[in-house]
Amino acid sequence: xxxxxxxxxxxxxxxxxxxxxxxxxxxxxxxxxxxxxxxxxxxxxxxxxxxxxxxxxxxxxxxxxxxxxxxxxxxxxxxxxxxxxxxxxxxxxxxxxxxxxxxxxxxxxxxxxxxxxxxxxxxxxxxxxxxxxxxxxxxxxxxxxxxxxxxxxxxxxxxxxxxxxxxxxxxxxxxxxxxxxxxxxxxxxxxxxxxxxxxxxxxxxxxxxxxxxxxxxxxxxxxxxxxxxxxxxxxxxxxxxxxxxxxxxxxxxxxxxxxxxxxxxxxxxxxxxxxxxxxxxxxxxxxxxxxxxxxxxxxxxxxxxxxxxxxxxxxxxxxxxxxxxxxxxxxxxxxxxxxxxxxxxxxxxxxxxxxxxxxxxxxxxxxxxxxxxxxxxxxxxxxxxxxxxxxxxxxxxx
Length: 398
Ligand code: C5P
Prior knowledge:
Elements: E1 6-11, H1 19-29, E2 33-38, H2 42-45, H3 48-55, H4 74-80, E3 83-89, H5 91-99, H6 105-112, E4 117-121, H7 125-129, H8 131-142, E5 146-147, E6 151-154, E7 160-164, H9 168-180, E8 190-195, E9 200-201, E10 207-208, H10 215-226, E11 230-235, E12 246-250, H11 254-264, E13 270-273, E14 280-282, E15 301-303, H12 307-314, E16 319-326, H13 330-340, E17 345-350, E18 362-363, E19 365-368, E20 373-375, E21 379-380, H14 381-396
Parallel strand pairs: 1-2, 1-3, 3-4, 4-5, 8-11, 8-13, 11-12, 13-16, 16-17
Antiparallel strand pairs: 6-7, 9-10, 14-15, 17-19, 18-21, 19-20
Helix pairs in contact: 1-3, 1-9, 4-6, 5-8, 10-14
The structure holds cytidine-5'-monophosphate.
Cytidine-5'-monophosphate binds next to α12 and β16.
């Protein structure tokens, strides 16, 4: 959701400025570009070097560089930003924002910003509760400024009450909501997504699995839900948190995934088969732990059922998207699967590309349908998810 967004982060002179470091890290991790603008006093609380290192850009404080006269254009900053966030926002800066005072670069940037603006107040409880601060916040809110409500707890003054700046994770979630107000293009649609590995029991303590982490499938489920779709995520065991607004059905084996998927598919408008399903499972599962002996051993395996192929047989106008992970003859194999499984399109991952495959946060994929193919560059898994969902959207809304 936040990937690629330009965030103009204003930091003012509050002890909570130390939290701006963690906030910047989270934003950068989420794929944002962060430009920090600080007030002179903020530099006393957190160093420009820390903020420049974390944001990967020189920070800005003054209107111009006194050494060479280079101008820091607040107009350009305002145009560049997709969102201006002032965190922490002191009572002083809030008052100046509310009344149009323009005596530093942060404030002139605010006055010229055309993008959404959010503030995360941070101050002592009495300053926060003071009618003038409350009035200023009301005034800012009435002009569309979003307020990230401060929390209650111990304050730097030793007092306890409301005024602690919201935690960095909460601020990031707030920004996600802010950007999430985009068009719910898939409202009314229901998609099934399978994700993660399967685990095939050998005995009560051992199983056969693979390296899938579920990241790609979870990113797709999250993106579909963000665009308003109802999403049923049938997931093998993963370490991932369920994306917001997604119904997750937890399974372990290929057989359980088959049952859950064939049950959900008739109610859905389409399915994205992202799971790395085991092709073979032990023919018998020992009910007790298998004891070792001095001999070698072999485990007889039987074929599992192909979920994608089964849904392909039942699809009756529903959309079906598959994945292919290939190490050789990639296009040929992927095209074969497109036909055999009766898919609308297939997402080809090649393990031969650096930055693609299991566990990593990036992927290099080619989208293949009966009309042709589209090779995407190296992108984050979230951006890949967004491109795949763009294609789903174009087919399902046809
Ligand atoms: O044939 P292959 O396993 O390479 O095909 C991969 C595609 O088929 C993926 O979309 C995967 O989720 C799906 N699949 C499945 N059930 C299986 C095996 C693969 O849904 N048993």
